[in-house]
Known about the structure:
By secondary structure, the protein is mainly alpha-helical. It has helices spanning 2-36, 38-47, 57-89, 94-118, 133-163, 168-194, 196-204, 209-251, 256-269, 276-311.
Amino acid sequence: MxxxxxxxxxxxxxxxxxxxxxxxxxxxxxxxxxTKAVGVVxxxxxxxxxxxxxxxxxxxxPIIGKIAVGSLRNKLLILLPVALLLSAFAPWALTxxxxxxGAYLCFxxxxxxxxxxxxxxxxxxxxxxxxxxxxxxxxxxxGAVKTDFILSAEIMAIALxxxxxxxxxxxAVALALxxxxxxxxxxxxxxxxxKLDDIGLNLARRRSAMTQSIGRGMVKAMPVIMTALAxxxxxxxxxxxxxxxxxxxxxxxxxxxxxxxxxxxxxxAGTVAGLHGVIAWTVTAIGSGxxxxxxxxxxAVVMHKWKHRNAH
Length: 312
């Protein structure tokens, strides 16, 4: 009896160790996948605050909450099952789909860059002053969730590529972890960003002169922060999209762009002692950004010509 119990406990301990190791592997895979998607996450964080600008401060956090719920629904109920089906039945389609998503990011980033340089912007349909606040809020949430769907699809595709070697259970758990962690991180950051001015105003009303100074500084910094976020988001879209296309082409058998960027990064990094990793990453990002600008620029020109042709 004692030996049987000891054997059972030993088996349980072995299963526990195996489960712990599996969880470590899943956690590590989820971490790698999240890191790969960091560029899209930055853009998601930079894009979302504009959906609550111009609305009542009292509705900012509820609106962000609605967008976050919609984002989680996108990832867990739609994109995760699609990603698993893709992994199981059509893994060959992952690279082309990633490249299509990368091309879309390049196009969006190039459009934003063109708007910033030319001063031309598209007037939003929800700018109609006759619309009720409730309908305007619903439009804002709907538009944000649709934009999030595109970015979330790219995040999940990147994550799936990172965990594609695992079984379907580990893939599902890793993707769910990435989805939840990124959603909480992005919309938590967005909530803090959109409330920085309110926090600053609150501090500016305190008795302490130093606290008041900090509060006023936060309020004055908001326009700079929003401008910086927009610039970072645009740059992230272009270099991440370009990088996805470069790696996709390499995976499909045309590795010349990837090799050129890698060789350039190594050549430049080799001239600076002690900063090899940083310099190599920077040059790689610039190379990917150039590819992204070319791809996005071509798509933007074609799209504008198509719209102009249809308009006439």
